[in-house]
Specification:
By secondary structure, the chain is of the alpha+beta class.
Length: 1504
């Protein structure tokens, strides 16, 4: 820099300006003259008064003679302290002539002060010379006098406006000479503990601060010449064994850097905040150009700071050589004891460089001086700041840096400010503040890495290899002459070369400074921007440094270096560094060293807690999980191999690292105790299982397990192997995880990994995570994700064990002591019930096992009632928990006698738990083994309603007088609408009833018939009624006998009469003659009647003989078929709902009877019924997807990207189709992303015939025509890609009651296997003639016009208002400029609550790396700080493969929304909201009747 300029160093050393004429006389003469003259002059000064006497020195001659005396007096021994003090007072008063002169100043000095001031500065140098054999008291007095002189000079330099350039140069040369006089000699302690040159220790900080401060003032007022700058730089080489030099150097550099950053990048750039005292070191009025020039010169003022790790270089000064020649104890200058301070000085120098690098990278940081930081720490130890090691200073160091960037940048801008304000934190908050959840996010406008490396790489690269013995293959580049800076040549090398490649032992004396340099380099390379180029030489040197820093062998390991490298390298594998994969094996070795132990096996950096180091290692591990399956057999070159020697090259493949990576992940998860680290590892485990399973499925690999189990085996009996998994395993600490190592090959397949993952997570969940809210939720989310992983063949045994573990976990949580029952605990139980529901639906075969079914139903009963029906037996199982605690769990067996529900007191853990258990029970009955339903996964409801059914009844429209439906409410929770008319062309004259059942879990349509024969005979009911079974008629049946009927048998006539018989008189003996005539007439009538009957009988016999047999008039005939039935009454009666008990009003309560009839004459009831139908049975979520091209910041630019496929990357379209299947919003029965088009379908005549857009970049799914949809048994998600032409749909869309609602039912067959929609027997729809692009064929069903329906009511949308955005970034740095505020205004779903203006927004940023993988950045903007962190499986910084990207994004979005619902106190599950709506309908429209009135109404016919 100053090669063409001469140094003034020799001129300063040999300057005679501080010599007096009295030095030529004997010492006693000079002392007497000086003491006498100086005492007289000092008395005339009258310093104590404001106005002194005028000086008696009239002309220049007098003044010069007097100054000769004063010059000699300043050099007197310290015993003449009074004389020296008087000399100082005189010169300090005379120097005021440069500002406002006092009366005591001679006139000649006042008239022309600059020449006299220059002479005085030369003379004052005598004061700063160390005195030999000075005592402690005298040295202290000398220091006080030096302070007085330095204060005066500071005042003159800052306030005087008449200093000439010659005076400025003399002043600066004086300061250089004074510093050199005090600081050049090596310090040596004598027997008393004092130094012979102790004045240097007293004044080191002060004299250096004055030098640097006045030099800055000179840069403002009279910029020093290049010769002075070169002299300054050369003389600093002699002072580098003093710690104060580095401190002052950094103090000035920080102040200048702070101003420089503000000038270069503006006020919005993250600022290097320094304390007010240090910031005032920059003089006012310094121009931007002056700041830049001064900053660059001061940056190189100490030349190469790496020399501080080489005592042999630091000691190559004349003073050190002189000391070595004169002192017999020191053989070599480099052996001086003062050089033992070089390691902390080197560390401090590298820390200062690190701070400046961080400032250029845009990391907000606050720098405090040593004294101020120490004063704020009561223990006397410097407070540990919230920054990485490259930015923080240990105790006892003169510089302490506090930065909030590495931990808080991504949370929010508000939190950044809060962190910056709280620069000093208590030690117990260190772990929290050092969190790497968001890591270091650099300023988007930061300079390129090349620019920063041009400035600092020469120092950092050399410092990073301090004390390292290089392999011979790395010797060639090191032999070249080393740069000390961009302009300075070096005369030495900072590294040594080991030519033998034998066992190497590195020198860790300068380990701390080396670690700081390594960490700084890692941050520089981690700041690599998308598409940025870095010079190849920088890559190669950095990778070599990483190789040596990542060594884990006990002979070569450097703990501080390794911890700094890992801590600052969490982004290294996800920023597209060229060739960075060469480091993967070495990084993996280091991760195995850290993550496989809960205690460090090496020396840590003081400012990095071990838990935070593990967190950084977890981030690195998450970055390499997908590498083996992505690169497969691609070789990784050995960094030790020589490029020209092919025989020596060693290489391994990525696939060979798969087992090691998976094993490390499981071991880390087993040992991890920190909640945040555990959650990240759980997300990584989900990624590995999903990636491996998807990869095997794609390659159509079917690997049979060692012990395969078929469905038949599971259905027959799996209880013998898995029931009471806990009892056979003994304790959760000794369960299947410890058996993982017996079969390491199992990790090669998804089958084995699935079993190990579920076993590990379930055991850790029961033993360690049971009381940690966020970890437990993450584990449950992982288990829910594993339930959906498709593995062939399925690991059925492990699936059954997992379900039973989940049930045990629920039971354990429910049975905890009352003091532990908090909302958080109940949230975990609710989430676990949801997970259990998914497992049962995805693996429905598990319920074929009686033991599994028993355990599931038992835990459901526990959730609903608060206790189990079976009495617990005495046999218990002990579960080991952390901290040597144990929990005894009772076992239940199927054979145990149950306790009847009527004898139990219903006391569920909470209503939320009860509701969740009821949902599982309903799912078991309705969905397990039958999902997706006939309507498809779009709707768990039946798509049929009253209007659809009436279209196929006898009446095609609803009459104005009323509805043909009868409505009854059962148990105050189920509305049953009964239609007593047969549907369609059904001609069977059987009692038929169609029931529309509306309950808490949906709407279902059933048609029932009272049949006398099964449908399997395929014979109509009419056939049975027209041909009744009877015997074949025969005419000759038996023998005919003529029998005369008698009143008494013939034997009676043979009995003789007795007296008693004769005592009864006969009729003839009692009648008179007149009566006898009448009796004779009566007898004549009888005889005539007998004759008539005989004649008729004979005539009838003859006619019968003439007629055919059998007689058609008398033959039996079948009865007429009845067409009129009161089937509603039959239905209620046959199902046991119709009884006197069910109609009685409960006493002393407002609860209605068990059976209630609704008033169908009130038309408002149908409106409320439609409102009930608009409440879905599942939670619905919406994810809006955006595509951002480089540099885009406005909403219009972002939305226009998806209009054409040429503006988006091909991977983006692939990602979209992996999220779900396309559906037409007009023919879709599920959630569409907006309330105005959801849960309803349109008639074909209402659907526009506009063609679907083609060739779009995703705008086809903007919600106007299509969206991407996905659903399972508990959730449905719509993925919307907003575009410019659909913006109005998402901003101010209102749904009027007068709008005609959709009416057509269609179901798409998407990426999952979905059955066809429900079709009526009488009319089956045809396939649509036109399918949407990319959509599977649709099946239409003419279910008729369902009438007008309202959209979902806002009152029903209870819960949090959460926004989920998935943003595809071409340039990763653009996530800082994403226009979140504008985006929120056009992503309305119609469900927003008017009283919630602020919304919780979660953004999943996706960036495609050049290697084909994808980097994930999670960003949350929460209106309130919550206890629940962001969900898994995606975590911030994870690198995922293309085959798992869509699945993991979808799962993460669903899990985020589920967590927010769990956390919300206002949220109610859909079935609870439906139940409350049903109860409201009952209260408003029930018919209050007596039993008689009810039965009377029941027998009355309804309009038909």
């Amino acid at each position: 820099m100053y090669a063409e300029w001469a140094s003034l160093q020799d001129e300063i050393h040999y300057d005679k300006g501080n010599q007096s004429v009295l030095h030529k006389f004997p010492a006693s003469v000079g002392r007497d003259v000086a003491c006498t003259v100086v005492k007289h002059i000092a008395q005339n000064l009258s310093i104590a008064t404001t106005s002194g006497e005028p000086s008696t020195l009239e002309d220049d001659k007098d003044v010069k003679w007097t100054m000769e005396v004063l010059c000699y007096g300043l050099g007197l021994p310290l015993v003449e302290h009074t004389t020296i003090k008087d000399c100082i007072n005189v010169y300090c008063e005379w120097l005021t002539a440069l500002m406002t002169p006092k009366p005591c100043v001679p006139r000649s000095v006042i008239d022309d002060p600059n020449p006299f001031a220059q002479v005085m500065l030369h003379h004052l140098l005598n004061l700063f010379k160390p005195r030999q054999e000075a005592g402690v008291d005298l040295v202290n007095r000398q220091a006080i006098l030096c302070h007085r002189v330095l204060r005066t000079i500071e005042t003159v330099a800052k306030e005087s406006n008449i200093l000439s350039r010659a005076t400025w140069e003399t002043l600066l040369r004086f300061l250089l000479a004074a510093n050199d006089s005090l600081l050049s000699p090596p310090t040596e302690k004598d027997d008393t503990g004092l130094s012979s040159y102790d004045i240097g220790d007293h004044l080191c900080e002060r004299v250096l601060s004055v030098l640097f401060g006045i030099w800055l003032v000179a840069c403002t007022k009279c910029f020093p010449s290049p010769s002075l700058w070169k002299t300054f730089r050369n003389m600093c080489l002699f002072w580098r064994h003093h710690e104060g030099l580095v401190h002052q150097w950094h103090k000035v550099n920080f102040a200048l850097t702070s101003r420089l950053m503000r000038n270069m990048y503006g006020p919005d750039y993250p600022e290097l905040v320094i304390i007010e005292d240090d910031s005032q070191i920059i003089p006012d009025g310094m121009t931007n150009e002056c700041i830049a020039q001064t900053w660059f010169r001061f940056l190189h003022i100490v030349q190469n700071p790496v020399d501080l790790c080489h005592p042999e270089i630091i000691s190559q000064t004349p003073k050190f050589l002189q000391y070595a020649l004169t002192n017999q104890a020191v053989v070599e200058p480099s052996q001086h004891e003062c050089l033992l301070k070089l390691p902390p000085i080197f560390h401090k120098a590298m820390k200062g460089v690190s701070v400046m690098v961080n400032s250029f990278l845009g990391i907000p940081q606050t720098v405090k001086s040593e004294g101020r930081a120490a004063n704020q720490t009561p223990t006397g130890k410097a407070a540990t700041p919230s920054t990485p090691p490259g930015q923080r200073k240990p105790a006892g160091n003169p510089i302490a840096v506090f930065a909030g960037s590495l931990t808080q940048r991504a949370i929010s801008k508000e939190s950044k400010i809060a962190v910056q304000k709280s620069v000093v934190t208590a030690p117990n908050e260190e772990t929290q503040l050092l969190s790497l959840e968001s890591r270091c996010q650099f300023a988007p406008a930061r300079p390129h890495c090349n620019s920063i490396l041009h400035l600092f790489s020469a120092w950092l690269f050399d410092a990073a290899l301090a004390g390292v013995k290089l392999h011979s293959c790395h010797a060639a580049p090191v032999k070249a002459q080393r740069r000390t800076s961009s302009f300075i040549e070096s005369k030495h090398s900072s590294v040594s070369v080991d030519q033998s490649d034998a066992i190497m032992i590195n020198d860790n004396t300068y380990e701390a400074g080396r670690a700081e340099a390594c960490g700084t380099l890692c941050r520089i390379f981690s700041a690599h921007k998308t598409g940025e180029d870095i010079q190849t030489v920088y890559y190669s040197r950095f990778y070599i440094i990483m190789y040596y820093g990542l060594q884990t062998d006990e002979n070569t390991i450097s703990g501080e270096v390794l911890s700094n490298l890992l801590f600052n390298s969490c982004d290294l594998l996800r920023v597209d560094l060229a060739g960075v994969q060469i480091l993967v094996p070495y990084i993996l070795n280091a991760l195995e060293l850290v993550l496989t132990s809960n205690t460090p096996n090496f020396k840590l950096c003081d400012q990095i807690p071990y838990v935070e180091l593990r967190k950084a290692c977890v981030h690195l591990l998450l970055s390499m999980l997908c590498l083996p399956l992505h690169f497969k057999d691609l070789e990784i070159k050995d960094i030790l191999s020589h490029p020209d020697d092919e025989d020596c090259q060693k290489s391994i493949s990525f696939m060979s690292l798969k087992v090691r990576i998976i094993d490390l992940l499981q071991k880390a998860l087993f040992l991890e105790t920190d909640s945040n680290n555990t959650q990240m590892l759980l997300g990584g485990l989900m990624l590995v299982v999903q990636d491996l399973a998807t990869s095997e499925q794609a390659e159509q690999i079917t690997l049979q397990p060692q012990h395969d189990i078929s469905d038949t085996d599971v259905h027959a009996d799996l209880s013998g192997t898995s029931v009471g998994t806990s009892s056979t395993d003994g304790s959760y600490q000794d369960t299947s995880y410890h058996r993982l190592h017996h079969h390491p090959k199992d990790q090669d397949t998804a089958y084995g990994l699935f079993g190990q993952a579920t076993s590990l997570v379930c055991n850790r969940l029961m033993s360690s995570w049971i009381s940690d809210l966020n970890t437990a939720l993450a584990a449950i989310e992982l288990l829910a994700g594993l339930a959906k992983v498709s593995i062939k063949p399925p690991n059925l045994l492990m699936c059954k064990r997992t379900v039973k573990w989940i049930c045990d976990f629920i039971a354990n949580q429910c049975n905890r002591h009352a003091q532990h029952h908090t909302r958080d605990l109940h949230s975990v139980i609710v989430a676990t019930f949801k997970c259990l529901q998914l497992w049962l639906v995805e693996h429905s075969c598990l319920l074929y096992d009686k033991d599994c079914l028993h355990i599931v139903l038992e835990v459901v009963e526990l959730g609903i009632s608060g206790s189990k029906s079976q009495v617990k037996v005495t046999e218990t199982q002990t579960i080991k928990i952390r901290d040597n605690k144990s929990v005894a769990m009772s076992k239940n067996r199927v054979s145990d006698p149950p306790k009847f529900k009527g004898d139990k007191q219903l006391m569920p853990a909470s209503m939320r738990v009860k509701d969740a258990a009821e949902a599982v029970l309903t799912c078991i009955i309705d969905q397990v083994g039958a999902f997706p339903p006939p309507c498809g996964p779009e709707s768990l409801f039946s798509l049929l309603d009253e209007r659809s059914l009436l279209k196929y009844a006898k009446g095609s429209a609803l009459p104005e007088q009323g509805t043909p439906f009868r409505y009854f409410v059962i148990d105050n929770s189920i509305i049953v609408g009964l239609l007593e008319q047969p549907l369609g062309n059904i001609e069977d004259p059987l009692p038929t009833v169609t029931a529309l059942i509306r309950g808490p879990f949906g709407r279902h349509a059933w048609t029932m018939q009272l049949r006398h024969a099964p449908r399997a005979q395929k014979i109509s009911s009419r056939a049975h009624l027209s041909e009744p079974s009877r015997p074949v008629p025969m005419e000759n049946v038996g023998v005919r006998h003529n029998v005369k009927n008698r009143f008494y048998p013939e034997s009676v006539d043979k009995i003789p009469l007795c007296k008693a018989d004769k005592s009864i008189p006969t009729l003839e003996s009692l009648v008179s003659e007149k009566e006898a005539v009448e009796i004779d007439k009566f007898k004549g009538f009888i005889e005539k009647q007998i004759c008539f009957e005989k004649e008729v009988s004979e005539r009838s016999r003859k006619e019968k003989e003439k007629t055919a047999y059998p007689n058609p008039e008398t033959e039996c005939k079948q009865p007429q078929i009845t067409h009129e039935y009161q089937t509603a009454r039959l239905f209620l009666s046959h199902y046991g709902f119709l009884s006197l008990e069910t109609l009685k009003e409960p006493a002393n309560t407002s609860i209605p009877p068990d059976l209630v009839m609704l008033d169908t004459t009130n038309t408002a009831m149908f409106t409320d019924m439609e409102s009930l139908d608009s409440i879905p049975s599942r939670d619905n979520d919406t994810v809006h997807i955006f595509y951002v091209k480089p540099g885009q910041k406005t909403l219009t630019e972002i939305l226009s990207n998806v209009t054409t496929s040429s503006r988006v990357q091909s991977q983006f379209l692939e990602f979209l189709h992996s999220l779900g299947w396309p559906v037409d919003v007009r023919r879709h029965a599920g959630w569409t992303g907006h309330i105005s088009t959801s849960w309803k379908i349109m008639d074909s005549e209402e659907v526009d015939d506009d063609d679907y857009q083609t060739g779009t970049g995703g705008s086809l799914y903007n919600g106007r025509q299509q969206v991407l949809y996905w659903a399972d048994v508990s959730s449905e998600v719509a993925f919307v890609v907003p575009s410019p032409d659909a913006t109005h749909l998402r901003m101010n869309t209102t749904f009027s009651d007068s709008e005609k609602s959709p009416t057509r039912s269609t179901v798409n067959e998407g990426y999952i296997n979905k059955p066809k929609s429900l079709l009526l027997d009488s009319n089956k729809g045809d396939r649509s003639n036109r399918d949407s692009p990319g959509s599977p064929p649709e099946v239409q069903s003419n279910t008729g016009n369902r009438g007008k329906r309202q959209g979902r009511q806002v009152a029903h949308m209870v819960g949090p208002d959460t926004k989920i955005f998935a943003v595809w970034l071409e340039n990763f740095e653009d996530h800082e400029n994403f226009p979140l505020g504008d985006i929120q205004s056009m992503t309305s779903t119609g469900q927003e609550q008017s009283n919630q203006k602020e919304k919780d927004v979660y953004i999943i940023f996706i960036h495609a790396l050049q290697n084909g993988l994808f980097r994930i950045h999670m960003q949350g903007h929460e209106k309130n700080i919550t206890k629940m962190t962001m969900a898994i499986p995606l975590v911030d910084g994870m690198v995922v493969s293309r085959r798992t990207l869509g699945t993991l994004v979808r799962q993460t979005a669903i899990n985020i929304c589920r967590r927010k619902r769990l956390e919300s106190e206002s949220y109610q599950p859909p079935h609870v909201r439906r139940k409350l709506q049903i109860q409201d309908i009952v209260n408003k429209y029930r018919c209050k009747m007596s039993e008689a009135e009810f039965f009377t109404a029941l027998f009355q016919d309804v309009p038909k």
